[in-house]
Specification:
Belongs to the isochorismate synthase family. The chain is of the alpha+beta class. The protein has one domain: Anthranilate synthase (4-Layer Sandwich). It has nine helices and 22 strands. It binds the ligand C=C(O[C@@H]1C=C(C(=O)O)C=C[C@H]1O)C(=O)O. The site of ligand ISJ has 19 residues, from strand 8, strand 13 and strand 22.
């Protein structure tokens, strides 16, 4: 079976997770775990899974559990297939209204304030996001958006997850928070960005600018350092490349570092490790608490499950958890798209606005929209 069948069968509320290796579709729910304490969730879920060795736990962690809880379910049925292949893009239709939250001028101002705070010292990095609200006169075809993201390989991890509020989070992220297979763990943090270009010369130039940008390397180093610091106590060996590599999606260039580790204790599950790592400086900042507080002060919305984690886990603790970015929260007739960027003292507010516009393209492109 390939992913086509699973993508056809997806209905809102289901869980879908597709990579270059496989696609997973989880439907219905045998058990639901909702909780603000993500670490205890990561301890309860494996106990429940022990009773259903054939099943998986799937779900989402929010950016900040102060606003919304972690939401993990054991689906009634789980189907696994091969990876999605290129297919013709499905038609979505245009929105009747589009609104930026905050408006672009306010976002530039917020980034300017963050830059000032960072330059005054205390904080090393903060990630600021903005949203795009789209309204429709018809029911939004979440299935078609997911199909387009998966078959276009819009990101290494295409996902959809039902949320406690009845909506769905749908997206395609390039960023792996954590995978565990037996004793081997991998994290692939991303920080540092430039847009792709349809013109090959500009595209290459953008990649070269990113590869040589001191600001982006600083931003990236803060992230990798935090990932390594968190994983180190869990691992008996950690393999960390000395410098990041260029990675790409159809819409963005990034700096990425593949961190590989060997667990000291095989009882530590993928979800437990994801809970320990989240929120990383890729989507929050450094130091974590001060950055989280500044995000709350400067962003005029709750992130919900954007900039959280999405993934799955087997009863023996293996699994994959991706950073839930390049996504939209999908309601019956409305969508909220999110995009953010890391701010360091050397950041330029206007360039940060452009970066978020470029990051919206993952979803807009999947919807056939040119906004
Ligand atoms: C926060 C987002 O992306 C993150 C921020 C990045 C950056 O600031 O360079 C790069 C990749 C992601 O870790 C997003 O896409 O919304």
């Amino acid at each position: 079976m390939d992913a086509d069948r699973l993508l056809e069968d997806y209905t809102p509320g289901d869980f879908f997770f597709g990579t270059s290796r496989r696609a997973i579709l989880g439907s219905g729910s045998q058990q639901v775990f909702t909780g603000a304490d993500v670490v205890s969730l990561s301890e309860i879920v494996p106990e429940a899974l022990a009773g259903s060795p054939e099943s998986l736990a799937v779900g989402v962690l929010p950016f900040d559990t102060a606003g919304v809880p972690g939401h993990i379910i054991i689906p009634e049925t789980v189907r696994v297939a091969g990876p999605a292949r290129p297919r013709e893009r499905k038609f979505i239709g245009a929105p009747s209204a589009v609104r930026a939250v905050p408006d672009p001028v306010r976002h530039v101002e917020a980034v300017g304030r963050a830059v000032k705070i960072l330059r005054d010292g205390g904080l090393r990095k903060v990630v600021l996001a903005r949203a795009l609200d789209l309204e429709f006169d018809f029911d939004v075809p979440g299935q078609a958006i997911l199909h387009n993201l998966a078959t276009d390989k819009a990101g290494a991890y295409t996902y959809a997850a039902g949320l406690p509020n009845g909506r769905s989070l749908i997206g395609a992220t390039p960023e792996l928070l954590l995978s565990r297979v037996g004793g081997q763990v991998i994290s692939h943090p991303h920080a540092g960005s430039m847009p792709r270009s349809a013109d090959p010369v500009t595209d290459r130039e953008n990649a070269d600018i990113l590869a040589n940008s001191r600001k982006d390397h600083v931003e990236h180093a803060i992230l990798t350092e935090a990932i390594v610091e968190t994983l180190r106590p869990f691992c008996r060996r950690l393999d960390v490349p000395r410098s990041p590599s260029l990675v790409s999606t159809p819409t963005m260039w990034h700096l990425g570092t593949v961190v590989k580790g060997e667990l000291a204790d095989r009882d530590v599950t993928a979800l437990r490790l994801a809970a320990a790592l989240h929120p990383t400086p890729a989507i929050c900042g450094s130091p974590t608490e001060a950055a989280r507080q500044l995000v709350g002060e400067l962003e005029p919305f709750d992130r919900g499950y954007y900039a959280g984690a999405v993934g799955w886990m087997t009863p023996d603790g293996d699994g994959e958890w991706a950073v839930s970015i390049r996504c939209a929260e999908v309601a019956p007739r409305a969508l909220r798209l999110y995009a953010g960027g890391g701010i360091v003292p050397a950041s330029d507010p206007k360039a940060e606005l452009d970066e978020t516009s470029a990051k919206f393209q993952t979803l807009l492109r999947a919807m056939g929209l040119d906004l």
